[in-house]
Design goal:
Layout: H1 15-23, H2 28-37, H3 39-51, E1 55-60, H4 61-70, E2 72-77, H5 88-97, H6 101-113, H7 117-134, E3 137-143, H8 154-161, E4 166-171, H9 174-177, E5 186-189, E6 191-192, H10 195-211, H11 213-219, H12 221-237, E7 239-240, E8 249-254, E9 265-271, E10 274-282, H13 296-299, E11 300-305, H14 311-324, E12 334-336
Parallel strand pairs: 6-7, 11-12
Antiparallel strand pairs: 1-3, 1-4, 2-3, 2-10, 3-8, 4-11, 5-8, 9-10
Helix pairs in contact: 2-3, 4-14, 5-10, 5-12, 6-10, 7-12
Length: 343
């Protein structure tokens, strides 16, 4: 769990917030850390826990079949994504926010407590930007809304379905929402912000830091620098142009040049005629590191087959494939969307 900047939490949490925070099983100091530096991600995580909604991966039927057969989920480089402004938009928004009056105020506070703090932070951030732009791999999920269980989302069928016999692979959110370092890959919600909206959310985090500066000073310079670097890093990676808002995306993020994983599997494949490096998430539990519920029978919720002239044949084959992989009652979990879209 990690992310950008939005939600404001009250000084005194209500009962529901407290119970949801308890469900994350995080120490009090880590909760406070997320409240200060990652309020948007924390707020979205609590919202997901309170609603209990599932997550959906829209993809081709071939990709879904491979995911089931090999019990692995692919992560692709963001430079291949359909948003041509990936990383660039977040970078632009952050650069503009760093020129604001509130950024100047934050600089004064931080540099006053830790000499040369801002210059050191921005130097480190700028040195990593080329890596973030070229070596960020993600798996994309979308929140499943209550009225989408039978139809799916029309815009997603259009975006990811042309010529591919699309499916919506619905999964339980537990493994993605529970904090864990087992994969060295982390889940974050995407924030859809214009530069002006980004500045509003940047201001929330800046005020959080300023209002808690005595507490943060006790934690030390290195802790604060690493924390604010992480906030800026996720703001860059997980801020998208507001025109993509209907995607309601969450992403699992891996940056191998920044932090190598012991468990993700590197590979190469060809997609739409283009050779690409990918990383594969094995669907296995690592309970000793609080990563569980990730095996296919536990993770899989249902499969919705999108607009396709072979929908009934695909339904038959996916039922057989899921049954072979130990998914109980697979026949009732594979359905056909009746959205009347010609792809």
């Amino acid at each position: 769990m990690a992310g950008g900047a939005t939600y404001v939490f009250p000084q005194h949490r209500d009962t529901m917030q407290s119970s949801l925070l308890d469900a994350l099983s995080l120490p009090a100091d880590e909760i406070k850390h997320f409240e200060i530096f990652h309020p948007y991600a924390l707020g979205k995580t609590l919202e997901a826990l309170s609603t209990g909604h599932s997550f959906v991966h829209y993809c081709s039927s071939a990709a879904a079949a491979s995911m089931i057969e090999h019990e692995q989920v692919w992560m692709r480089n963001v430079t291949w994504m359909n948003d041509s402004s990936e990383i660039a938009h977040g970078t632009m928004c952050l650069a503009a926010a760093l020129e604001s009056d509130v950024a100047a105020e934050l600089t004064g506070i931080l540099d006053g407590r830790f000499p040369n703090f801002t210059a050191d932070l921005l130097g480190i951030l700028n040195s990593w930007l080329p890596h973030f732009q070229q070596e960020t791999y993600i798996t994309c999920l979308t929140e499943q809304l209550p009225d989408e269980e039978q139809l799916g989302r029309l815009s997603m069928w259009r975006a990811y379905g042309a010529g591919s016999n699309p499916v919506a692979f619905v999964v339980n959110g537990g493994p993605f929402l529970r904090p864990s370092n087992a994969l060295d890959a982390y889940t974050s919600p995407v924030a859809y912000l214009s530069p002006a909206q980004f500045l509003q959310q940047f201001t929330v985090v800046a005020r959080n830091i300023i209002n808690n500066i005595d507490y943060l000073q006790e934690l030390g310079r290195d802790h604060v620098l690493a924390s604010l670097f992480a906030a800026y890093r996720y703001a860059i990676i997980c801020t998208k142009h507001p025109s993509f808002y209907e995607e309601r995306e969450w992403r699992i993020i891996y940056q191998p040049t920044f932090q190598q994983s012991r468990r993700l599997i590197p590979d190469r494949t060809t997609i739409a005629g283009s050779p690409q490096r990918i990383f594969k998430i094995p669907l296995v539990d690592v309970p000793e590191e609080d990563f569980y519920g990730a095996t296919l029978p536990d993770l899989f919720s249902r499969l919705l087959i999108g607009p396709s002239p072979t929908a009934h044949q695909l339904q038959r084959e996916f039922v057989a494939l899921l049954s072979d992989k130990g998914v109980p009652d697979a026949e009732s979990k594979v359905e056909i969307s009746n959205v009347p879209l010609r792809l």
